[in-house]
């Protein structure tokens, strides 16, 4: 459970609500047509921009914002070094028991290919393709929220324009100008809050988590290739420890 995301959303909503209550009632900031324009317009635009399968994955993507668990980089390196030492002493077949014990399917598949005697080049090609597919899947997730973050304020402005047109059409009654202007502004308020408190921060968090996962996959890739090539475990460890330096991330292709 990601407490930072939950605390951030709850505190953000709380600060906004307290600020509203200090100057007026909450009812003043509720307008159903405005909600329909911003929420409905954002959903509609997102469905136009993305395939239906990508749009329907939004529930899974959202869960990843709050429920996320990733193995520590140093633990992955330590595990690879241990496997490398075992392979160096007892041969590649000696690491077969590690395949069943690892919870990481990416690592397990790579080790299985290593034990099966698959050529290094083939192992590298398969692992790189898998990494590329995961990277593409992640990009779809965070770009989905990034797009919604740009659509919401735009539809907030659309709602404001609709409200202004309706207000200008009734200028013969000055008493309605104030209330109609307030309603027009509320739509922009909804769009800004949705974009800046939910969509854009979620996209940023998902992008960061994608980078973490790809970094770990890169470490596994380099470690397994090193094991297959029979490199000395200490040399492999030195190469992988580079990722512990300054939070290094693999280069985006």
UniProtKB/TrEMBL annotation:
Superkingdom classification of source: Bacteria
Subcellular localization, as worded in the UniProt entry: Cell membrane
Domain MotA/TolQ/ExbB proton channel per the UniProt entry, residue ranges: 102-217
Biological processes, Gene Ontology terms: bacterial-type flagellum-dependent swarming motility; chemotaxis
Membrane protein topology class: Multi-pass membrane protein
A Pfam family assignment: MotA_ExbB
Keywords noted in UniProt: Cell membrane, Flagellar rotation, Membrane, Transmembrane, Transmembrane helix, Transport
InterPro entries (alphabetical): Flag_MotA_CS, MotA-like, MotA_ExbB_proton_chnl
Keyword Transport belongs to the record: yes
GO cellular component: plasma membrane
TM region positions: 7-30, 36-59, 144-169, 181-200
Keyword Plastid: no
Family, per entry: Belongs to the MotA family.
Record's protein name: MotA1
Gene coding for it: motA1
């Amino acid at each position: 459970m990601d407490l930072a995301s939950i605390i951030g959303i709850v505190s953000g909503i709380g600060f906004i609500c307290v600020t509203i209550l200090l100057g007026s009632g909450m009812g003043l900031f509720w307008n159903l047509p405005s909600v329909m324009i911003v929420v409905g317009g954002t959903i509609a635009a997102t469905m136009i921009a993305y395939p239906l399968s990508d749009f329907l994955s939004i529930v899974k993507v959202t869960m990843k914002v709050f429920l996320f668990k990733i193995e520590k980089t140093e633990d992955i390196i330590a595990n690879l070094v241990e496997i490398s030492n075992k392979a160096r002493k007892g041969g590649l077949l000696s690491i077969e028991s590690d395949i069943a014990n690892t919870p990481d399917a990416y690592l397990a598949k790579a080790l299985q290919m290593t034990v099966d005697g698959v050529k290094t080049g083939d192992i590298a090609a398969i692992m790189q393709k898998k990494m590329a597919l995961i990277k593409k899947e992640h990009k779809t997730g965070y770009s989905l929220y990034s797009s919604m973050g740009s659509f919401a304020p735009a539809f907030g402005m659309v709602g404001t324009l609709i409200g202004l047109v309706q207000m200008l059409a009734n200028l013969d009654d000055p008493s309605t100008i104030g209330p109609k202007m307030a309603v027009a502004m509320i739509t922009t308020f909804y769009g800004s809050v949705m974009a800046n408190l939910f969509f854009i921060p979620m996209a940023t968090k998902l992008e960061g988590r994608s980078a973490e996962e790809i970094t770990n996959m890169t470490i596994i890739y380099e470690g397994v290739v090193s094991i297959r090539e029979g490199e000395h475990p200490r040399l492999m460890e030195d190469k992988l420890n580079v990722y512990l330096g300054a939070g290094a991330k693999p280069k985006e292709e």
